[in-house]
TrEMBL record:
Annotated family: Belongs to the ATG5 family.
Protein name: Autophagy protein ATG5 alpha-helical bundle region domain-containing protein
Record has Metal-binding as a keyword: no
Alphabetized GO MF terms: Atg8-family ligase activity
Autophagy protein ATG5 alpha-helical bundle region domain residues: 43-82
Keyword annotations from UniProtKB, A to Z: Autophagy, Isopeptide bond, Ubl conjugation
GO CC terms in record: Atg12-Atg5-Atg16 complex; autophagosome; mitochondria-associated endoplasmic reticulum membrane contact site; phagophore; phagophore assembly site membrane
Domain of life per record: Eukaryota
Length: 95
């Protein structure tokens, strides 16, 4: 029950619980590895999935499949910086 409260609090704080499991055909070992659980920020998860969908439609996954996690983070941080600049411009225009 305590674990459920922790998960609910994390979801309320804007994080999603995600479980990654390898497909059986991708496992070369006798014993299947344990699933990997992680809490990811909700907005970032939606943004990255949207970018991946756009990549599939436009480039047949050639762009996103070659990107590493650091590239995804750089893309996300770039979007955050653009939003921050827009917010500052709007505040300056209001003054």
């Amino acid at each position: 029950m305590a674990n459920d409260r922790e998960v609910l609090r994390e979801i309320w704080d804007g994080k999603l619980p995600v479980c990654f499991q390898l497909y059986q055909d991708e496992i070369m070992e006798i014993q299947q590895p344990d699933p990997f659980y992680v809490m990811i920020p909700r907005l970032k998860a939606h943004y990255i999935s949207t970018v991946k969908e756009a990549d599939v439609l436009k480039h047949r996954s050639q762009v996103m499949s070659t990107m590493q996690k650091k590239d995804h983070n750089q893309l996300w941080l770039g979007l955050q910086n653009v939003q921050l600049l827009r917010d500052r411009e709007c505040m300056a225009a209001d003054k």
